[in-house]
Amino acid sequence: MTETAGKARARRTSKDAGLTIERIYTTEGVHPYDEVTWEKRDVSQQNWKTGETIFEQRGVEFPDFWSVNASTIVTTKYFRGAVGTPEREQGLKQLIDRVVLTYVKAGKEHGYFATDTDAEVFEHELTYALLHQIFSFNSPVWFNVGTKSPQQVSACFILSVDDSMDSILNWYKEEGFIFKGGSGAGLNLSRIRSSKELLSSGGTASGPVSFMRGADASAGTIKSGGATRRAAKMVVLDVDHPDIEEFVETKAREEDKIRALRDAGFDMDLGGADIVSVQYQNANNSVRVSDEFMRAVEEGGDFGLTSRKDGSVIETVDARELMTKIAKAAWECADPGIQYDDTINDWHTSPESGRINASNPCSEYMSLDNSSCNLASLNLLKFLRDDDTFDAETFQKVTELVITAMDISICFADFPTEAIGETTRDYRQLGIGYANLGALLMATGHGYDSDGGRALAASITSLLTGASYKRSTEIAAVVGPYAGYARNADAHKRVMRKHQAANDQIRTMHTMDKDIHGYATKAWDQVVKQGEKHGYRNAQASVLAPTGTIGFMMDCDTTGIEPDFSLVKFKKLVGGGSMQIVNLTIPRALKRLGYAEETIEAIVEYIADKGHVIDAPGLKPEHYEVFDTAMGARAISPMGHVRMMAATQPFLSGAISKTVNLPESATVEEIEEVYIEGWKLGLKALAVYRDNCKVGQPLSDGGSTAKEKGQQAQAEAAPTVEYRPLRRRLPKRRTSQTTSFAVGGAEGYLTAGTYDDGQLGEIFLKFGKQGSTLAGLMDAFSIAISVALQHGVPLETYVEKFTNLRFEPAGMTDDPDVRMAQSIMDYVFRRLALDYLDFDTRSFMGIHTAEERARQLETGSYEASGSEDDEDYEGDFESYSQSVAPSGKKHDEVESTEPGHEGSEHTPAGAGAASARLAGDDVHSSAELLEKFQGKTADAPMCMTCGTKMRPAGSCYVCEGCGSTSGCS
After folding, report:
1. Is 161 exposed, middle or buried, given 0-12, 13-18 or 19+ CB atoms closer than 10 A?
2. Theoretical Cys-Cys bridge with 21: which of 122, 344, 667, 932, CB 3.0 to 4.6 Å?
3. Is 254:280 a contact under the CB 8 Å cutoff?
4. Residue 820: phi, psi to the nearest 5?
5. Long-range contacts of 528-534, Cβ-Cβ distance < 8 Å, separation of 24 or more
6. Distance in angstroms (rounded) separating the CA atoms of residues 399 and 466
7. 451-479 helix and 511-534 helix, angle to the nearest 10 degrees
């Protein structure tokens, strides 16, 4: 399986002199640090549930365009040294230098660069790309590289276990060390004899599920002993294992236990005092299914469960019934997922060295047993020019630069076990990927679940992997192919041709994906031709990981391959405070779709108010799909997620970390259909999550315990006091004003009468001819509203209910303060809000005068704190604009983000700025903001570090507050 280091060195001496590194972003003689403006910030982090300050470091140095969230997470997660000591890192320069200079030194020592000048260019380009958030390495690189700690660079590990007690106990030990280091591991338990087979002593074997208990308890103990996140692990069992049914139902039965204990009054929330009594909660479970099994499911045939000792059939089951049990368990508790064994191994580049049996915890890395993979992800939005074209040439160059760095890291990396180190050094598996696909699709006017969106995603993914393997052949020409290549050469070249053939099958639809596909086609041609001559440096090159913490480091709107989580986001401000803003890609998308500035402004304000685009003023229904999200009113359909995965899977060495979300109303049959379609569409792995299926997942006040029910019953038995509102009549002589208006060409009159204190007390609407039915209805409506106002119903209640109400006549108005209206009611109550509500109240509803909007565009800020005389708002919003604008520029002057052209052009942000509003004190993340819009608790755990509601990232969860993840990347 391996070759000696001596042979590898001997082979390298006959290779080329080294790589020539070309400049992408940098200028000769100018260091990247000298091209940006630096500022010092105070970083503080609190636990929102307890109010406790959990971290504080003052005077940390970051570029002025890095958001507060990015700088906070990097400072708390990645800076090394004890806070308050001279050893503590004080800024981003130190962090980047610690990593980059280690890579440069190793590259020189191992002969990667043709000259010292090439090494310097490599250093500057890598520094620039990290500084400008164009890509990021996975977290272990930032934790360990350049420190006195072991230089572990991998986040993902695959272990192995055999059918012996020594091997099982060694599994516990190795997994424990990996968890202790904050990483995750996966393994396949199928070699362990089932509980239906005999031991050599004559007794009955315990079976793999029994041994899972010990491993689960170990993981839980290590987590609670020091780590602040759940242990990340994956347990896989082959579908033909005799204990497969027990394995499938294991976590579902534990979920029943959680319900029973919860109803008895025990604290069964994730992290609760009593949840530790429940087993198997520290792992993701997956069933490894074969094509034979899936065909038997389709045909309704029988399927044999085989002995681990001699392969004989121990039991025959109905394949369709077993698949239904798998789907039912997933319906009940989201486990198990599915891994498609034959598809995985058909794309295996090193089959002569062993099969692929398992994956890492998030299911994106799949390779040989006892191996590891280091990850890095590119920020796709950084390659989108201001003219909405994708810079495919720069994307390819950056991919090649990053792959070079990732391969260099294996030269100096440390590994948790010698077996893992040996396999990784011999096969050099890499996992380059990307983030912000969802944001890129939205910004360019592509629906996530659309043919155009899938064509663009497929083209980008094909170019990513094609460029990676192209550079892999070039590195092989310099320092030799991976040690295991010789025995796997035919298989590896076959897989390269499969990727190339899949690229040829892409059907482009627009100029953007056509151009990217052209670069991908050229890259794959070079991969196949150069691979014949030089071989490949890496057995694997690409995966699509969750990009949790590093996604925040790059200020990404979306993670991995995921669509946008929601249209309204939570943002922190420098110096404290927070805002809720409409995603800045939305105005860009609307502009690309051809909408006028006035319409864009109206749509953005509607989204800020409602959190979705349904019935947004002026938005065409055929464009709704562009703004579909993972959660919310227009959530992407389950098959929409599956189809996107299928579009990109043929261009990945590994797999995709992603969960297919289903509504709570989804059936077992629908989950079964998703699993079957995933197989037919060529996926390697698939996981599902049905809303509210897990009792112990959300830490919330959702379900009442038995104790709470008792308190509720006592409350219901108490005497009831009834309060009735009193009518406050208007004086006989009162002040009123009449406003004439026109909506969509139809004219009307609004008369509003007030009390002596100026408070609104009555309205009269005249619309249409006197005596008509419409006039009568308007009179009745006016009386009803007037009486309610006099009984104390707040005007803002009516404004909230009647604005954005849609019916004809609708369209342009003659009122400069309300440019468009969806109906007469929409106009009337917007006008009343402007005339009778204070600025704070109507600003929160997104209702502003023409003068206020003009002032906002001139200053790039909005009076968040209340009145125009408030002295504090200016500083808050200057901080806000720095934290949310592209490239860190303020809203009135956003620089071009075209790669290689930063600062070359200025364009106004336009309608997007009007969407900024103060976030409530009860909101600390985008997930909690979505809860506010939906009016229900989100299905996600609370972060154990800072108490913030986490949100999905691939198959895992990530915390916006502190960057903690429940996975391994």
Report:
1. buried
2. 122
3. yes
4. -135, 145
5. 528/493, 528/496, 528/497, 528/500, 530/470, 530/473, 530/474, 530/477, 531/469, 531/473, 531/492, 531/493, 531/496, 532/493, 533/473, 533/477, 534/473, 534/474, 534/476, 534/477, 534/481
6. 10
7. 30
CB neighbour list of residue 965: distance below 8 Å, 6 or more residues apart: 229, 232, 546, 548, 549, 953, 956, 957, 958, 959
How far CA 931 is from CA of 446, 566, 583, 627, 802, in Å, comes to: 26, 11, 17, 18, 22
pTM, entire model: 0.78
* CA dist list (Å): 582 to 449, 603, 604, 607, 844: 21, 10, 7, 7, 13
Report residue 53's pLDDT band, with 50, 70 and 90 as the boundaries. Answer: confident
How distant is the alpha carbon of residue 467 from its chain centre?
24
Output Rg (C-alpha) for the chain, integer angstroms.
Answer: 30
* Helix residue ranges, H only, 318-391: 319-333, 341-346
CA distance 597 to 174: 59
Yes or no: say if 415 and 421 are a contact pair by the CB < 8 Å rule.
yes
Q: How confident is the model over 771-784, as pLDDT tens digits?
A: 677 778 888 888 99
- Three-class SS state of 257: helix
| Domains in the chain: boundaries | 27-150+374-550, 737-915
Residue type, 423: T
Residue for token pair 């994906």: 513
Count of beta carbons in the 10 Å neighbourhood of residue 575 = 13
Burial 311-331 (b: 16+ CB within 10 A, else e): eeebeebebbebbbbbbbbbb
Amino acid at 703: G
> What one-character DSSP code corresponds to residue 943?
P
- Say which DSSP state 403 is in: H
| Cβ atoms < 10 Å from Cβ of 663 | 12
Does residue 914 carry a pLDDT above 50?
Answer: no
Would you state the structure tokens that stand for residue 166, as one six-digit string?
Answer: 């020594």
CA 197: distance to chain centroid?
Answer: 44
pLDDT for position 410: 98
Could you give the residue numbers annotated as active site? 360, 362, 364
Q: Find the Cα–Cα–Cα–Cα dihedral 488, 490, 495, 497, rounded to 10°.
A: 150
| Nearest Cα to Cα of residue 576 among 170, 880, 315, 344 | 880
- Give the pLDDT mean for 646-674: 95
**Is pLDDT larger for residue 281 or for residue 736?**
736
Determine which of 73-77, 176-180, 513-517 has the lowest per-residue pLDDT on average.
176-180
Band the pLDDT of 270: cuts 50, 70, 90: low
pLDDT at 960 over 80: no
What is the distance, to the nearest Å, from the Cα of residue 885 to the centroid of all Cα atoms in its chain?
20
Burial of 533 (0-12, 13-18, 19+ CB in 10 A): exposed
Do strands 358-359 and 366-367 pair parallel, antiparallel, or not at all (unpaired)? antiparallel
Mean pLDDT, residues 951-958: 70
Q: Which two tokens stand for residue 693?
A: 């299926």
How many residues does the structure list for the chain?
969
Write out pLDDT tens, residues 466-516: 999 999 999 999 999 999 999 999 999 999 999 999 999 999 999 999 999
Q: Which amino acid is at 838?
A: D
Give the up-direction half-sphere exposure of residue 809: CA atoms within 13 A in the CB hemisphere.
Answer: 16
pLDDT digit string (tens) for 431-462?
999 999 999 999 999 999 999 999 999 999 99
